[in-house]
Amino acid sequence: xxxxxxxxxxxxxxxxxxxxxxxxxNYSCVCKVGFEGDGYTCLDVDECESGESNCDPNAACYNYIxxxxxxxxxxYVGNGIECSFELNCNSCDLNSDCIDLDGQKKCVCxxxxxxxxxxxxxxTCNFWI
Length: 129
Description:
3 domains; rod-shaped
């Protein structure tokens, strides 16, 4: 029986060696998922930069060697592939109040501040000394 050509091969550490069933001494190298190249040289695919990620538009994409990860941005929640809006009072600015309107929470800037409740700025136009 012939030796396995994949026992000693020149494939990249990021590639799989595939023995040729027709010619026992031959093999080919195929880059693993998340990498591209000729099998002898395999480079990481940046799915975030290439647009190949499956991240939700309200998620941040993080590239790692061989894979990527999606994380929902605050105040969105989910698995990163699907993110939905969920307000919790921790998302509100320190200069806002979290109020409950008919079962839905809302951030409202305190008196003397303006903004959307997530970011509240001092209202200097209406500030009298």
